[in-house]
Input
Amino acid sequence: QVQLVESGGGLVQPGGSLRLSCTASGSIFAINAMGWYRQAPGKQRELVATITRRSERTNYAESVKGRFTISADSAKNTVYLQMDSLKPEDTAVYFCNANWGVGQVDYWGQGTQVTVSS
Output
């Protein structure tokens, strides 16, 4: 199993920046990829960005391309999401995800609130 702990959410003005962190523990050797998803009130959870285990590939939602950057520090077992040029529509609870093992089991963090408002 994998445990995920997120941090870094908060309130920011439009145009501002935030960096989210997600630290994994447990059976991390079997993680295939990690990523960030978000869920706004009344909406379905959606993919924001993903990164493969050795950071070979990244993938972004069209709505965040050019503004968000996902990265990983394998020594710290941590994945980051740098969010720049934030917009009010980025307001959501952001969840860290780990895709694990041959069966591609999904593990989730507890979520961190990001609010973009003036």
In short: DSSP finds no helices and eleven strands in the chain. The mean pLDDT is 95. Residues 39 and 45 are 4 Å apart (CA to CA).
